[in-house]
């Protein structure tokens, strides 16, 4: 895969300087994948500033995304339209003078503020009867095979063919910041494996992280457990099983997870946002997949290893369900922790240097 592939994506008008707003999906992994959209836009219009609407949770990611001028941080509630907050956001957007808004989600709600802000070009796919809100309507979303195709197609001219490859998402974390983070957390300079045992949906969670962590520590490696507050109990279980060389680094600040993934020599992750962060940084990443399809949901960057159960092919895979309703979660239970630990160890020792 050519990580900087722009085949089929031309530069249109280098003199155009009107700012562009992207309204992305706000789940962490989807937000990271949205950086491909930024890269396509910057190829088409190298001198148009690109901003991202962003939640407080995802805001730290913007600091490491090349080509993004700024993040517009605005938290809208998920369960209601919140028109007063939409008006406030629209006022903020209007002040920026955007010429174009790309509205990636298909929801009516996602298009309200760009419309109230009177952004002249509002590009998005048809969905939820958004006629009038989206004035540069696109069609044919369901025919596009992958999530990245649906999003990045909006950054191309209407009707354009998809390129053979998309430029991959990038997160660039300065080495000096990584070093300061390790020192502030007392993590030393030894090789470390970052583990991300959480995910949205219980069926995507591999439950053998404690065993894999213990095996890695026995080989002299540090283990860092990364995740949000919801993974705190699981992190403590992993640390208890692995011993003194394992650290619980879970918390509410996503920047901590970004820096941990940048500092680690290898990352082991379920199909989750942290997997996409690690891959976009360039950390060798082992993705563990059970109910979801690596073709559809693995990072565009590629993974150092994609781990699936190998004892038998299950007819229910991929089910895409958040909770297993058949085969007693065999798609994840059949993945051996010793195998995952072996792959992680091989990746570490094969690198000319570790972070």
Task: State the end-to-end CA separation.
Answer: 24 Å
Give the oligomeric state.
single chain
CATH topology of the largest domain: Rossmann fold
Largest pleated sheet: 6 strands, parallel
Ranges where pLDDT stays below 50 over 5 or more residues in a row are: none
Q: Strand order, biggest sheet?
A: 3-2-1-4-5-6
What spatial form do the alpha-carbon principal axes imply? Answer: globular
CATH superfamily of the largest domain: Glycogen Phosphorylase B
Helix/strand/pairing category: alpha/beta
Tally of domains: 2
Helix content: 25-40%
Secondary-structure element string: EHHEHEHEHEEHHEHEHEHEHEHEHH
Mean pLDDT: 90
Summed up, the helix count is 14
What percent of residues are in strands?
A: 5-15%
Q: Whole-number radius of gyration?
A: 21 Å
CATH class of the largest domain: Alpha Beta
The appropriate CATH architecture of the largest domain is: 3-Layer(aba) Sandwich
Number of strands: 12
Catalytic activity: an L-alpha-D-Hep-(1->5)-[alpha-Kdo-(2->4)]-alpha-Kdo-(2->6)-lipid A + ADP-L-glycero-beta-D-manno-heptose = an L-alpha-D-Hep-(1->3)-L-alpha-D-Hep-(1->5)-[alpha-Kdo-(2->4)]-alpha-Kdo-(2->6)-lipid A + ADP + H(+)
GO cellular component, one term: cytosol
Keywords: Glycosyltransferase, Transferase
Enzyme class: transferase
């Amino acid at each position: 895969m050519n990580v900087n592939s722009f085949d089929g994506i031309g530069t249109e008008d280098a003199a155009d300087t009107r700012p562009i707003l992207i309204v992305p999906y706000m789940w962490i992994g989807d937000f990271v994948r949205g950086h491909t959209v930024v890269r396509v836009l910057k190829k088409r219009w190298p001198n148009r500033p690109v901003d991202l609407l962003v939640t407080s949770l995802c805001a730290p990611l913007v600091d490491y995304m090349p080509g993004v001028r700024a993040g517009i941080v605005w938290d809208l509630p998920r369960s209601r339209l919140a028109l007063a907050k939409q008006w406030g956001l629209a006022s903020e957007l209007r002040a920026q003078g955007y010429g174009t808004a790309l509205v990636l989600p298909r929801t009516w709600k996602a298009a309200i503020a760009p419309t109230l802000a009177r952004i002249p070009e509002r590009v998005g796919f048809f969905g939820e009867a958004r006629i009038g809100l989206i004035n540069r309507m696109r069609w044919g979303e369901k025919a596009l095979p992958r999530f990245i195709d649906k999003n990045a197609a909006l950054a191309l001219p209407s009707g354009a063919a998809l390129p053979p490859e998309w430029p991959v998402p990038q997160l660039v974390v300065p080495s000096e910041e990584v070093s300061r983070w390790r020192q502030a957390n007392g993590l030393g300079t030894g090789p470390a494996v970052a583990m991300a045992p959480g995910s949205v949906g219980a069926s995507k969670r591999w439950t053998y992280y404690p065993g894999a962590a213990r095996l890695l520590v026995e080989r002299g490696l540090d283990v860092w457990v990364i995740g949000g507050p919801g993974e705190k109990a699981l992190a403590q279980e992993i640390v208890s099983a692995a011993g003194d060389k394992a650290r619980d680094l879970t918390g509410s600040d996503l920047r901590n997870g970004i820096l941990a993934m940048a500092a680690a020599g290898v990352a082991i992750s379920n199909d989750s946002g942290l997997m996409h962060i690690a891959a976009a940084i360039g950390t060798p990443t082992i993705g563990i997949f059970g109910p979801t399809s690596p073709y559809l949901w693995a990072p565009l960057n590629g993974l150092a290893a994609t781990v699936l159960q190998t004892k038998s092919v299950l007819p229910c895979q991929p089910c895409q369900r958040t909770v297993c309703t058949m085969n007693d979660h065999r798609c994840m239970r059949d993945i051996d922790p010793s195998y995952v630990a072996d792959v992680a160890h091989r990746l570490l020792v094969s690198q000319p240097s570790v972070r």
